[in-house]
Each structure stands twice: as C-alpha cells, then as structure tokens.
Design goal:
Length: about 270
C-alpha cells in the first residue's frame, strides 16, 4: 500500500510538472501576448511576466512592441523634371495594437516594407530633383503621412521616415558640377566688379581732393617714393621739371667779378657813366 501511494504521488507530481512546463509562458517586458483559445482570440492580451495557459487548448503568440528600424531598398524612378534617380530610405515604426497586428495583416513587417517602397516611388515621381536634394524634411513628412494612414488600421504607428541617399547618374553629376562652377565664377566676377567700382569711386574722390590741394599731391608723391625706395634691388626713375633743372644750373654757375662785367648799354647807344 505504501509503495502504491508513493508511486501515485510521484506520478501526480510528474504530471503537475509536465502541466506547468506546457502551461507556463514567459512574456518579456517589451512584448505582449495575444491569447488564442481554440483558434479564436479570447480578447485578452497578456502582460509581461509569467502566464499560464491551458495546454492543447490555448496558444499564446507574442508580439514585439519595440520600435523597429526597417531600411527601404533603393527605388529607381523619374522625377517630375525627367531626371532618373535612385533613392533609399529608412522607416521607424512600432506596434501599438498587438491584436490588430496579428489579425488585420498576415505579416505586418512585410506589409510595411512594401507600402514604404511604393510610397517612396510615388514621392519620387511627384518631386523635382531640387526637392530631393535640398527639401528632404518636407518629403519625409509626406512619406510618413502616406505610410501612417494604412498602418493605423494594422495596429502600427509610423514614428519617422528618413530619406537616406539620392543617387544620380554620372552625366547628371558632371552637369551639376559644371553648373556649380559656373555659378561660383559668376559670383566671383560680380564681387570683383563691385570692388573695382568702389575703388574707382574712391580714386575719383581722392583725385578731386588732390586737385583742390596741390600740396597733397606732392605729399603723395613723396610717400610713393619712400615706399618704392624701401624695396631692395630697385631702381627709381622720377621725372624732374625742366624749370627746376634751370634753377639748379643758374645756382651752380660762379659769380663774375664786377670789373669783368660788361657795362650796360645806354638808351642813346653809349655806355652809362661810371
């Protein structure tokens, strides 16, 4: 009798352990468990922790509630201004309704990926090349709206969509490089022309000022001479007025004695008296 009782208790304990092993389910903190009872949703979403189900009757399917980062493969399309481009992007989304994510769509990840690809091609066709290159924030918002509308019905919330890269044909890259170089050259010429105009105005004002004050012109000439003479191995040639040379020549001649000077002629033709 005792042996039979021990065997029964052991069998009951083993059955209890087997039941716990088959009935126990652990739901992680970032997951939610959707309970199916005989193939029907019981309407109960299990919280994180240890959960018990009825073996062979219930089935607990876990759904990840974390934000999913999904890259969108590069899509090739023609922009509104007839330029062929390849654009890739990334979409961030998360499940907000675990039951809808399992019941409304077969594979919500695949559905979001396909919807993102078609939406990206649609955005390419509606946009110009300049918008794809410089106005990405607006395009990102448009992509987010296009994805979020159908995703809400699947229990999905699209948090953000970002365009990663825009690939252009080599011919277009060379054309844009030539255009940018021409634009930079145009701006450089405009800046040089403005500088010449301002310099000419200042020179005209300086010339007018020097014309009104001749001494200023002489001072400016002296400053130029000093600046040029400061340079090494330089030869300076300055024009000297002829009047100045004649004045210097007269100053260099020796004075004649008084007796050697010829007497001045009288108006009547004779010399003055001594």
């Amino acid at each position: 009798m005792v042996e039979d009782l021990v065997v029964a208790v052991a069998a009951a304990g083993s059955a209890g352990l087997v039941y716990l092993a088959t009935a126990a389910r652990v739901v992680k903190q970032y997951e939610r468990g959707v309970l199916f009872r005989l193939g029907r949703v019981s309407g109960e979403v299990r919280s994180p922790g240890l959960n018990l189900i009825i073996p062979f009757v219930d089935r607990l399917q876990k759904v990840n509630m974390q934000i999913v980062t999904m890259p969108i493969p590069a899509q090739e399309g023609i922009t509104r201004d007839n330029v062929t481009v390849r654009v890739d992007a990334v979409v961030y989304f998360r499940v907000i309704d675990a039951t809808s994510a399992l019941l409304k769509v077969e594979d919500y990840r695949f559905a979001v990926s396909q919807m993102a690809q078609t939406s990206l091609r649609s955005i390419i066709g509606k946009s110009d090349l300049d918008d794809l290159l410089s106005n990405r924030e607006k395009l990102n918002e448009g992509l987010e709206l296009m994805l979020d509308s159908p995703a809400v019905g699947w229990g999905i919330q699209v948090d953000r969509v970002e365009i990663k890269d825009v690939s252009l044909p080599d011919t277009m890259k060379r054309s844009m490089a030539r255009q940018a170089e021409a634009d930079r050259e145009r701006r450089a010429r405009i800046i040089n022309a403005d500088a010449e105009l301002q310099a000419s105005k200042k020179l005209a004002e300086a010339a007018q000022q020097m014309a009104d004050t001749p001494a200023a012109l002489q001072l400016r000439l002296l400053q130029t001479v000093m600046a040029v003479s400061a340079e090494k191995n330089s030869t300076l040639v300055l024009p000297i007025p002829v009047e100045l040379l004649r004045f210097l020549e007269r100053g260099a001649q020796p004075a004649l004695p008084e007796q050697e000077r010829e007497p001045a002629a009288h108006p009547d033709g004779g010399p003055y008296p001594a």
